[in-house]
């Protein structure tokens, strides 16, 4: 039996949540406002967590979303986020040749006047003078050694300085999931560290499109 991946568990969760919302909306007596939907989804998640309805892989996500739903109410926009996750993750389920996809994305970013550096070793703290241009750096060791036969065979770190949504849009266009940005772990000043994984198998929620 194949072990469920985080991506599969996440899709199962959000699709079940969206189905529950749709079923609720079909009830003619239901109040279909953003606040009412958010309250319903929060209660649904609380019950799902209590009953351990979904894999442990997404338990932290459930706990986090319940927390922000309770503190922000409709402002958390959880129904919208569920729809975004469903759209973005469903689109990459069958993505193949991610090595080619990454290279195509890098080529496109260069054509859009990004500064893309792939031939520098990044193994200590560095600083890049990019004159205000969007920039993306991958250590030469990772770029040359972790793409084989059109595939990403080991996680690759992308150091990026740009509007996150530009990166999210470029990645989604080429069928890639990119991790959330991490400024603390970045080795390049003013850049965030993002990661792409073999088979798009991110271990946690990816960077989402707005």
Automatic annotation (TrEMBL):
<dbReference type="Pfam" id="PF11140">
    <property type="entry name" value="DUF2913"/>
</dbReference>
<dbReference type="InterPro" id="IPR021316">
    <property type="entry name" value="DUF2913"/>
</dbReference>
<protein>
    <submittedName>
        <fullName>DUF2913 family protein</fullName>
    </submittedName>
</protein>
């Amino acid at each position: 039996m194949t072990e469920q991946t985080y991506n599969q568990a996440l899709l199962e969760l959000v699709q079940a949540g969206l189905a529950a919302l749709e079923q609720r909306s079909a009830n003619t007596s239901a109040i279909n406002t953003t606040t009412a939907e958010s309250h319903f989804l929060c209660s649904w998640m609380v019950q799902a967590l209590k009953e351990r309805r979904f894999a442990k892989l997404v338990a932290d996500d459930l706990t986090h979303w319940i927390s922000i739903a309770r503190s922000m109410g409709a402002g958390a926009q959880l129904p919208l986020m569920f729809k975004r996750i469903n759209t973005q993750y469903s689109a990459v389920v069958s993505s193949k040749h991610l090595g080619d996809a990454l290279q195509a994305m890098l080529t496109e970013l260069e054509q859009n006047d990004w500064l893309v550096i792939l031939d520098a070793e990044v193994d200590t703290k560095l600083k890049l003078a990019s004159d205000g241009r969007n920039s993306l750096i991958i250590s030469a060791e990772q770029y040359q050694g972790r793409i084989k036969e059109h595939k990403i065979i080991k996680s690759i770190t992308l150091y990026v300085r740009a509007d996150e949504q530009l990166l999210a849009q470029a990645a989604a266009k080429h069928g890639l999931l990119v991790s959330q940005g991490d400024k603390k772990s970045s080795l390049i000043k003013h850049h965030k560290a993002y990661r792409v994984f073999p088979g798009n198998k991110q271990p946690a929620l990816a960077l989402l499109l707005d």
